Amino acid sequence: MQVHVVKSKIHRVKVTGADLNYIGSITIDEDLMEAANIIEGEKVQIVNNNNGERLETYVIPGPRNSGEITLNGAAARKVAKGDILIIISYGIMEIEEAKKFKPSLVFPNEKTNLLN
C-alpha cells in the first residue's frame, strides 16, 4: 500500500504579488524552494490563511533571496498581496517508508519571506 504524506512545507509566507495575465503557477524564491526541497514544476497545495482558499498549482523559481511569492494566472484571483500562505507538497511512498520519513519544514521570516 502507498500513502500520500507531507514531503515539504513552507509555513506562513506573505504574498508579494498576483499576476492574473501570467499563464499559471506560483513563483517562489529559489532559496525557499531549496530549503523546502521543492523542485521546479512540482505540484503544490496553497492554503490561504486570510480567506480559507485552497488550490493546487505548480512551482516556478523566483530570484534568490528576493522573498518573492507570486500567484500567477487564475490563482491570482484567490489571493491578495499581503495574504499569509502555507505551501505544501506531498509525496507518495510505501507505508513503512512513510512511517520513518521526515518532511522538509521551512519557517521563513513572515515579514520578509527570507530564511532566518
Automatic annotation (TrEMBL):
This is Aspartate 1-decarboxylase. Catalyzes the pyruvoyl-dependent decarboxylation of aspartate to produce beta-alanine. Belongs to the PanD family. InterPro entries: Asp_de-COase-like_dom_sf (IPR009010), Asp_decarbox (IPR003190). Pfam families: Asp_decarbox (PF02261). Pathway: Cofactor biosynthesis; (R)-pantothenate biosynthesis; beta-alanine from L-aspartate: step 1/1. Coiled coil: none annotated. The modification Pyruvic acid (Ser) is found at S25. Its EC number is 4.1.1.11. GO terms for biological process: alanine biosynthetic process; pantothenate biosynthetic process. Heterooctamer of four alpha and four beta subunits. Substrate binds at T57, G73, A74, A75.
